[in-house]
């Protein structure tokens, strides 16, 4: 991580293949998002570090990311470094996108997208519990309803801070949800299965049998197997979590409905492509399937405006 600590704010020096404006478009795509707020020039997010809530504003100018601290105790240099590390991971700044753009330049599907959205990075979910819950919530329902369920969940169990008429929320921890009854989640319109999956995962994480650190030490095949051994986590959910939380650029949620829609639109197909057809399109994406999927997702926002 390349960063400068000015004590009252910090700056990140991202790689050249980074565009804050493109990332901001993605962050601002959902009207019902409850975990951050975007404006034309900034994203605001509430973090919980060492049991203290800290509100940050992230902006960018002259290829530098600036993090301002709007609320909370940031007197500790370790806390400021932790915030910088969070934002660095949030924007996936450790990935060498030069390699992805080389792959994209050779591919008829990705070439145009790579030029259109140059500098866009996968917007990650550094918190494993959040990534798993969000992926499970999104199973077999439309995205709008998934955001509605997430909003109810966060506002029921998460911590909040209000400033200048805006309320900011923190995703509940596994420890908080481990003691929640399935019936309580059912009252939020969670299906019985999803409520069971989420409370089960919360219990695993609260007791320490499932940790991000352990998963990060595994190779991709072992990691995928470990994730799909968790009740409620199938192949799509595992690949999504590997892509959005564990920084695996070759993770490939091939069954994703949004991916199918994007390919249908980009290729002018009369119907959505089959899995076999997608596999043939993706031959050139080897090692960068996650970024190919992410850029195709991004193209959907242009397709339906």
TrEMBL record:
Give the GO molecular function terms. alkylated DNA binding; DNA-3-methyladenine glycosylase activity; DNA-7-methylguanine glycosylase activity; oxidized purine nucleobase lesion DNA N-glycosylase activity
User: What Pfam families does the record point to?
Assistant: HhH-GPD, OGG_N
Reaction(s) the record says it catalyses: Hydrolysis of alkylated DNA, releasing 3-methyladenine, 3-methylguanine, 7-methylguanine and 7-methyladenine
Keyword Nuclease attached: no
Stored InterPro entries: AlkA_N_sf (IPR037046), Alkylbase_DNA_Glycosylase/TA (IPR051912), DNA_glycosylase (IPR011257), HhH-GPD_domain (IPR003265), HhH_base_excis_C (IPR023170), OGG_N (IPR012904)
Question: What is the official name of this protein in its record?
Answer: DNA-3-methyladenine glycosylase II
- Enzyme Commission identifier(s): 3.2.2.21
The segment(s) forming the HhH-GPD domain are 137-301
Q: Which organism is it from?
A: Alkalicoccobacillus porphyridii
Query: What's a single GO BP term from this record?
Result: DNA alkylation repair
Alphabetically ordered keywords of this record: DNA damage, DNA repair, Hydrolase
- Species lineage, top-down? Bacteria, Bacillati, Bacillota, Bacilli, Bacillales
In terms of CDD domains, this protein maps to: ENDO3c
């Amino acid at each position: 991580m390349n960063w400068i600590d000015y004590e009252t704010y910090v700056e990140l020096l991202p790689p050249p293949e980074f565009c804050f404006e493109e990332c901001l478009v993605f962050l601002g795509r959902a009207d019902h998002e409850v975990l951050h707020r975007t404006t034309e020039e900034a994203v605001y997010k509430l973090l919980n570090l060492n049991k203290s809530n800290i509100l940050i504003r992230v902006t960018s100018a002259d290829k530098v990311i600036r993090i301002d601290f709007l609320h909370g105790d940031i007197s500790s240099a370790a806390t400021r470094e932790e915030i910088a590390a969070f934002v660095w991971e949030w924007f996936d700044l450790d990935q060498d996108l030069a390699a992805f753009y080389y792959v994209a330049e050779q591919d008829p599907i990705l070439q145009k997208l790579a030029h259109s959205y140059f500098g866009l990075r996968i917007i990650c979910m550094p918190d494993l519990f959040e990534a798993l819950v969000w992926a499970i919530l999104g199973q077999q329902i439309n995205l709008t309803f998934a955001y509605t369920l997430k909003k109810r969940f966060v506002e029921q169990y998460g911590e909040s801070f209000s400033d200048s008429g805006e309320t900011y929320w923190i995703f509940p921890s596994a420890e908080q949800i481990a003691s929640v009854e399935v019936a309580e989640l059912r009252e939020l319109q969670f299906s019985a299965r999803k409520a069971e999956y989420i409370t089960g995962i919360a219990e695993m994480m609260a007791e320490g049998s499932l940790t991000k650190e352990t998963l990060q030490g595994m190779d991709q095949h072992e990691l995928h197997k470990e994730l799909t051994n968790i009740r409620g986590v199938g192949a799509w959910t595992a690949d999504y979590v590997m892509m959005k939380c564990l920084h695996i650029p070759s993770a490939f949620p091939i069954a994703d409905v949004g991916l199918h829609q994007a390919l249908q639109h980009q290729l002018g197909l009369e119907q959505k492509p089959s899995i076999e057809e997608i596999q043939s399109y993706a031959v050139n994406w080897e090692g960068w399937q996650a970024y190919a999927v992410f850029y195709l997702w991004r193209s959907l926002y242009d397709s339906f405006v």
